[in-house]
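Weekly sync, protein design subgroup
Attendees: M.S., D.O., the rotation student, P.L. (late)

Item 1: inverse folding check
M.S. brought a backbone from last month's batch and wanted to see whether the design step gives back something sensible before we order anything. D.O. pointed out we never logged the input encoding, so this time it goes straight into the notes. Structure tokens as presented (203 positions):
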């Protein structure tokens, strides 16, 4: 009997004079917890906006699987990975095939003029490798059996080193190469300056 009497008493006290407090208690969020929840929401919004901005303004791309390939056949005649190299498709437009193997890249040096757009195709003949080209947004995994494809432009002359960034065995740290982006104007200027200088010596 006494229990039955206490229960209604409690209900009365909550729904009565302290109705507002009862509602607040049901949704009780500590002040600091609330602050952190708001901070977390703001951070999520910042991340979302960052991804959106980077995808449209800096050419954010996810290197997808361009095609599948049998690692056993990549050395066969006709395979672009048998003697992988850089090819000029049109002025300023290149495609570069890269083969990764323990523990080197073929080719490990690529030369292109500044302002070129290069589409990279990369695959591995053995284990999982990766390639990260410094000072660009290129960072992709190179998996045996798959060809990864990504396109980027090199507008600034200079040397862009690239490294394998997936641990692939004891000599992983020796897997690197470089892309030399040549300044076409500097080359012309050099030739022009060398011309009269040389003829001066001859005379
Ligand atoms: Cu290849 Cu690490």
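Designed sequence read out in the meeting:
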């Amino acid at each position: 009997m006494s229990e039955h009497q206490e229960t209604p008493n409690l209900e009365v006290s909550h729904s009565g004079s302290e109705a507002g407090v009862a509602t607040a208690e049901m949704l009780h969020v500590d002040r600091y917890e609330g602050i952190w929840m708001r901070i977390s929401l703001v951070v999520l919004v910042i991340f979302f906006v960052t991804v959106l901005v980077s995808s449209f303004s800096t050419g954010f791309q996810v290197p997808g699987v361009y095609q599948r390939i049998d690692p056993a056949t990549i050395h066969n005649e006709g395979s672009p990975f048998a003697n992988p190299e850089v090819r000029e498709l049109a002025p300023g437009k290149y495609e570069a095939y890269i083969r990764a193997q323990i523990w080197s890249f073929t080719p490990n040096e690529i030369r292109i003029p500044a302002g070129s757009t290069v589409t990279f195709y990369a695959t591995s003949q053995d284990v999982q490798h990766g390639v990260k080209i410094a000072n660009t947004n290129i960072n992709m995994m190179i998996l045996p059996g798959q060809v990864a494809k990504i396109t980027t432009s090199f507008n600034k002359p200079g040397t862009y080193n690239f490294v394998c960034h997936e641990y692939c065995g004891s000599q992983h740290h020796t897997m690197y190469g470089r892309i030399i982006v040549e300044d076409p104007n500097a080359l012309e200027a050099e030739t022009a300056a060398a011309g009269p200088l040389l003829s001066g010596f001859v005379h």
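Discussion: The radius of gyration is 31 Å. Residues 159 and 180 are 5 Å apart (CA to CA).
Action: P.L. to compare against the previous round before Friday.
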